[in-house]
Amino acid sequence: MPKFQPIVIKPEASPSDIAYIESHRADIPVIEMLMVHRRRYPHGDLLASAIGYVGEVSPEQIEASDSKLKPGDTVGKAALKECTTTP
Predict the structure, then answer these.
(1) For residue 14, what are the contacts with CB-CB under 8 A and spacing of at least 6?
(2) Distance set, CA 7 to CA 45, 50, 58, 73, 84 (Å)
(3) pLDDT tens, residue by residue, 28-75
(4) Are residues 56 and 69 in contact, defined by beta-carbon separation less than 8 angstroms?
(5) What is the pTM of this model?
């Protein structure tokens, strides 16, 4: 079990935020910057349930991943699935 878990301090850092962190790396070695892929929905949440979304991995997903996932990882989440019926 890890001694600590990562937390997000600023989810959307600006270029000046990134430059500040990089220029002060020696002063704040405990801060780690990670690029996170996020989905953008141009029409708001209108189709989010149909095309899915991304979010932080759940404890259950971590446990089921055989150590491939860790707290703070982002994974695809559920979307509507095609339903088929047979006559």
Answers:
(1) none
(2) 26, 29, 14, 11, 41
(3) 888 888 776 666 666 666 666 677 777 888 899 899 998 889 888 888
(4) no
(5) 0.42
